[in-house]
Amino acid sequence: MRATFADFAIDPPRFGNATARYAKCHPDRDRLAIGAGASVELDFALDRDELPEQLTLTLIARVSPLGESLGCAPIDITVNGHAVIEQFTVPGGARPREVAFAVPGEALVAGANTLYVRGCDEARGLLWLYRITVEPSRICARMHLMAEEQRDEAAVWAYRTEWRAPGSAAWRPAPRLLVHLDRGEGSLPVRLAWRGQDGAEASIGFQPAMTEFYGHRRAADGALTEYRGALEGRSSLRDSALEEVMHRFRTVEGGGAGGRHLGQELRLLIEDGGPPVERVIWGDPSGHSGTVSLLAAEPGPEAEVTDLVTRVRAHSEFTEAGEVAENLLHDSWHKWLGHGDSAWLEFTLRRPAAVGHYVLTSANDVPGRDPRDWTFKGSDDGEHWVDLDFRIEESFAHRHQPRGFTFPARTPYRHYRLEITRNAGEDQIQLSQVRLFTSAPQPKGFIGHYQRAGEAPTGYRGTSVTAAPEPESAAALPRAIEQWRSYLAEYSATILRVADEEELSEVGDEQRAAGWLGFEGADEESVLALEERLGTRLPPSYRAFLGASDGWLNISPFMWRMRTAKAVGWLREADYETWRVIRGGEGDDWDDTAFMDRALLISEEGDAQHWLLDPADVSEDGEWAAYIWASWYPALGDRHASFAELVAEERTGFEDQAAPEVRTARPESAEELVAEGRAQALRGEVRKAMATFEQATVKGSGAGAYLGIILGAFLDISAAHHWIRTGILGNAHVMEAIGMEQLRAEAAPLYLRCAAEEWTGAPGGYLPALGDILPRLPEGVDGVVGAGGVAAGGAATEGDDTAAWMARAAAFVPPALPESRTFQQALDLARALADRGATDQSWAVIEAALPHWHGDSPHRIAPVVLLTDPAFREVITPARARRVVTTPRGEFRE
């Protein structure tokens, strides 16, 4: 028989070999809402020669909650008048359930057949129906239910795996495979294929019980092997470590003429011992299939803990060539090189951290030196080690290639060890960089398609649930009390700035002065009293709104006053006359009577409109649907997923119509970013601080640009003069933000330290600031260079003043910035030791004093004197310079 289905998750609904009729029910976005006495009839046709002995009727449905209760919406189902099920209640819960029923052959007829689903009179809520499918009975229907029953108890499948090369009789152990794929329908895959970010591919098929699989795999270097595995165990999603490596996506299905609709959350985990996957293809027992291509993301600075490393050791290193283990912590082209075809590296952290992702970067030459097999270990004491991750047959496709490896992070350790047991064939081992993270980068989303058996494919897209929300997205809406206060304060300021006096007639002088159109927030006792009176807990966003302000004025141009906690109530009780008038309205697609009987009234006075919440339409996170009823509407207004969404929609309309010029993206201010970056830097979190200062620079902060450049000089002094030349001395905005005194003490000597050796002429007219900083020499010494440091034309005369610039640089003595007493004493002792050639002892004194350093200005981020004072030139190596800024230092003091 042809596929017979009704898909109500699409607007408008889509039908296959069927037509539908409704009675007292209505399509509601991605579902059909069926209440007491409501029904839907589905007509489908069967040819005489295809009458089956039995059909399987499958529903995907959910019961709407009633406040905090699960709700109850029993249904009767008949086919051609033959009872299939009576008084059946779909199990309650936060997600749609799939249930299947047998339709006996004697209930079917050749030609037109009618399936009838009716809400029983005892219903106390709505049945949300997403999909109806009628198909020949197969064993897969039972398998769907088994998967639903098992999914919480055995969600992640772990397999012990093996590889075998073509023509070989021997199987070799391979990395463990973890599999979880769930798009909210509870169906287990029967076939699975994926591609890793390095180009490696695998394709496997499962036995019906998923206890074994068999397939093939092509490695990144093209090597082809057979691939098999046996079930080792199943783990629940309650395991937080597995949750950390699980990819979770909000999804949208559909496209083209059919429109799009929200789908169920997709959970995806395929961990095969290689790099993260970038494409997945699967099929389930019903013949449904899907494919997704992931949008890759780089590891974020918030998860990186490389800066916590205080020491790195290796089994061997080439000290004379500078190819030492310390280079692994730097963002540079330098490398570590060790003897032998096996090696170990140990990393000691300042404090324990739960590393769950690490990145290895190949070095500049000789691919045969790349690591091939290794084990990543953790330890509390540096002596007793725990295996955390095991990799074999790994490869790097090109030079300076970073590759990330993820494993479940369960325990924080202070020591980590990379034990390389085999390389790619040479008698030496090398890497360019090692980075440590607490969690893996999450894909930003995916694109793909999904295809149900017998149907055309449909578009399938997803956004990571961990991705930063777009400014206008529901995830960005206020929910907590403090979020509401901030949101409403901005909204108040906009209204007070653009509204006329008539619109603000009820706003008092005190509210105008405070810039706050609300009142004191309702305390917890008042909110609890309201909930006790209503007999239900309020939805989160509205509950938090009351906590931020107990009532509100001018929340929209047509809503002038919101009710207080004491005045909120069911519409039928709080405003009986309005309830009596509007409950009788008849809409084509909505039963106004039932809705008005249960609606919660939260508004008090408006322009012939009322704001209402629906306790029978509750989302997974507890939000109630929100509506506006107004006298000029033929029925209820548009549905909003929450009270917060309704407020945001009204605010957007107000700003679009009344004040488009005052709309802003409301970004975090540059000043806040600078303060955050400074705090991160003083905690030793250098990479996070650099990323934060970059954000501040993009938002126009001169201080952010300066602090980022100074911090970067400690990480790579060789390139500092390029950054200082263009980013500081060539940028008047930055110079103005910092001031000449600090530029003379820090930026200028840093620039001169590196730039003097490269000068082949004067700095040029693009650096007038340097001419103002360097001292003037007696007439005749600096030739044609004028008092401002450049020739009259704005640029130094070519070829005749290099010596003059060099002389002025040599005569420059930077001012000494004040240091704390403890740190100044350490500097004096360290200089004396350095003068005697005791560089290691000098460094030991400085290192011990670093935690006591603090700046006397918010624009000081580290003791730059360690880089600029010639006395410390041999003391502060690149590795030690990095140690300076990864060591936590004292806070800024006034």
From TrEMBL:
Domain of life the protein comes from: Bacteria
InterPro entries named in the record: Galactose-bd-like_sf, Knr4/Smi1-like_dom, Knr4/Smi1-like_sf, SBD
Knr4/Smi1-like domain sequence ranges: 521-649
Pfam families from the UniProt entry: SBD, SMI1_KNR4
SUPFAM superfamilies: Galactose-binding domain-like (SSF49785), SMI1/KNR4-like (SSF160631)
Stated name of the protein: Discoidin domain-containing protein
Organism: Streptomyces malaysiensis subsp. samsunensis
Lineage of source species: Bacteria, Bacillati, Actinomycetota, Actinomycetes, Kitasatosporales
